[in-house]
């Protein structure tokens, strides 16, 4: 059966999601610049016309894929925090537990958002802006958790905790060693205890 015939049975919104998911998997595995549009199309099984019905350029496709993944990750982290219960300290440490579990997954290949910043250095590049938006959302969430926990200097503490997260992610990917999550969590506990005004 020809590709056009296959596509005709798939709703347009489903094709868009298929493109986003396929593109994201390829970008994570090989890098943004290394993966061409033709590779994405071949893997997704859709025509170039379909791609350009949804995305004006490769950068738009990348930014949209990053936006979708960002929403999924943030929702998963929110769920992990909620599952940690009402203890403010446990809720903050749930961020590190979530990352520890992620580091152990078969498809873990580091932070694609940090990699996007490395590949798209120019100001105003859509993938860079999408990466920045994700990191900003993370800062806001962690700062809010720090503030609700009554910790001192919540904005500064949030930055410090996320430096630990990003550092652990980098080294876990570099050395294929998930134990960096435990090191980051232990350091986070020290920072959280130091910021606890009740201590």
Care to give the gist of this entry?
It contains 10 helices and no strands.
Main sheet: strands, sense, barrel: none
Element order, helices and strands?
HHHHHHHHHH
Helix content: over 70%
Number of strands: 0
Strand content: under 5%
Low-confidence stretches: 1-10
Radius of gyration: 19 Å
Average pLDDT level = 93
**Helix run count:** 10
What does it look like?
With 199 residues, the chain is mainly α. The chain has helices at 3-8, 12-30, 37-44, 48-54, 58-83, 88-103, 112-119, 126-148, 154-175, 180-195. The chain is elongated, with a radius of gyration of 19 Å. The model is unreliable at 1-10 (pLDDT under 50). Helix 2 (12-30) packs across helix 3, helix 5 runs parallel beside helix 8 (126-148) and helix 6 packs parallel to helix 9 (154-175).
List strands and helices in order, with pairings:
Elements: H1 3-8, H2 12-30, H3 37-44, H4 48-54, H5 58-83, H6 88-103, H7 112-119, H8 126-148, H9 154-175, H10 180-195
Helix pairs in contact: 2-3, 2-5, 5-6, 5-8, 6-9, 6-10, 7-8, 8-9, 9-10
Quick tags:
199 residues; 76% helix; 10 helices; elongated; mainly alpha
